[in-house]
Each structure stands twice: as C-alpha cells, then as structure tokens.
Fold this protein.
Amino acid sequence: MAEIRIISLRKIKIGSHVQCDIYSKDGHLIFKKGNIMTEAIIDRLESMGVTRVLVEAGTVELVDDESKKPEDDGLPTDNIKEYSETFMLKKEFEQGKDALLNKDVDGAQDVALSIASKLETSNDIKKELDELKYGTEGVVTHSLNVAVLAGAIAIENGFAPKDIEELVVGGMLHDIGKLYIDPNVLNKKGRLDEKEFEIMKTHAEEGYRKLCDNRGVSHKVRMMAFQHHENNDGTGYPKRLRGDQIMWEARIIHVVDVYEAMTAKRCYKDHLLPGDVMEFVMGKYSTMFDIKAMDMFLKTIPAYRKGDIVRLSDGTQCQVLESNPLNSLRPLVVDLKTMKVMDLYSDRNYLSKTVTELIVKEGEVVKTQ
Ligand SMILES: [Fe+2]
C-alpha cells in the first residue's frame, strides 16, 4: 500500500524540513519539497482556504510525531462486519478474510475466482463498489477491496475473462507479503523509524517469494505482488522500475491500491472523499501512475456519481446528472434551485466552478476541506 496521507495543515511541525511536494485538495502544488515549513506559510495557506494537505508518509515531521504511522494494518482488529446484507460479495469477503489470515494462497485464489465470476455476471458493478467503502480495518479488507476494484476495472474496460480473473487474484494477493512482516512493525501504532520503514517495504518482494512457492499461482499474479509499488517515473520500490518495465497488470493494481488505501475509513481519522483522492491521483498522472491504467481507472470509478448531491464553489447546491468519463471531477449537474443544467467539463461558462462538497445522503454534509 502506498504511504500517502492526508493531514491537517496544523499537524506539520513548524521549522521542519519537508521532504515531499505538498498538494492542496484540488491538486495544486502548494509547497515545494525541500523547503522549511514556517508559521507564515501555514497562515498564508489557511487564508487560501487550505486546511488539509496530501503528503507522503515519513517525509513530513508532525507535531505529535505520527508522520510514519502505518495504516491500521493490525490483523487482530481486521473485520468486515460493516458490510450490508445486500452486498453481493459478502460471503466471499468472509471466506477471503479467513483464507488470507491463514495465509492460505490456494483458498484465497479460489475466493478471488468466485469474486471474478460474480462480478462478471453482475448487472450493477458500481453498486457493489459503493459497498466497499464500508470496509473497516487492515490489510485483509484492503486486499479484498483491491480485488473487487481491479476486477471492476477489467470488466468495464472489456478485458478477456482470463485477464479479469488474474487481476482479481492479483488484487487479492498483492499485499500477502505484509502477513509475513514482523507484527511489531506491521501493527506498530507509533512512528516507524527508518529501519522499520525499510522492513515494511520488503513486503513486495516477500510476497513475490511466497507466491513463487505455490505452483498454482500464475507468473502475472506473482509480479503484481512484486511490482505494485513501482512508480511510472522510476521512484518506486523494490527495483525502481519505470514505464514499460513494470508489468501492465501491476500498473493497474498500483492505482487501485493507492485509491483504496486513501478512501478507506480505516486509514485516517479524516478519511478522504473520493473526489479528494481522485484529484490527488490525477495529480500523479504519469509520475506515479501509468496513463493508460489511470484512464481505465477513471472510466470505472467516477469521483461523483449520478444522483449525488454536491455543492459548487459558488455555493449552489446541485445534483449530478451524469458522471464524466473524461474528467470525473467535472460532472454534468443540475442546479437544484434554478434547475439549470450545467456541464462543468465542456461548457466554458462554468469552467471556474468546482465541486467543493459532497452531500452524501439525507442531508448529511461532508466537507471536503
Ligand atoms: Fe503493498
């Protein structure tokens, strides 16, 4: 899982040397790597309306010293009890959890194949994707979510059945190396030191090795575990591969892995809205992620969906009429007061407007800042 976090701007320690570029929630670069954070900079950013920022874990010193806190991957607390009864894959998630916790690769593969076949016959994959947000904690739930998301991308983009299956299995097993990480490191609640961070990073290679021990696992699936933290520009790990050197399937898992990690409730007190994550992901177009994999991802998982009630930057409350496959942050909406339809993507009159809030349901409002 990529170590990317959303933090409150006020959590960054004054005087600390920031070792990563910092982005605002709308994807703008607001702070250059290598500079020192000052009170004045924080004040200025706050005056611009920036209160939460996206950073890479371990590169920013935090006030409460939690910068290198890993995701709550504590296996003992992993559970999937919050899934609704209507969730089509509920049974598979329960079985998949058992298989993964027992490090049962064959069992996990069987469950993944069952997930793939259910997804292929599903009339409404996107409804199933909606259920994923109810997942709670840990590497197991993350793996199951990634499996379903990867399968959905494969189906939405017309992959052959064999390729769909392999992506689902790869999603299920991509982080299996984490199950072999020293629990004291994996479950550590406080700051990971550099050495512990290096240990965490070994999960990609470790997972690959464990999967090589099982003859029933395909080469592609093994490589998805090995390469899912490689970045398109060669800055990833473990081999710092770039572009075409990274197996195509691993590039898809990489995008899904980051997206799932950032939207999951388990990660942070303030888990990100899909729109926030999408903006971050789009900001990493071609640096962290492969462009083609990103396009397939965006086609499958829109930031705002038909029926969502959103607020625009000018305060108007709108309903999404259609999500936009070309830019999922700029859907077709209708102003609920005037009933004027606005195409935020192609109509020049509305280019200055952005979606700033997502009103989830029954009037519950989640602010994006
Ligand atoms: Fe990972």
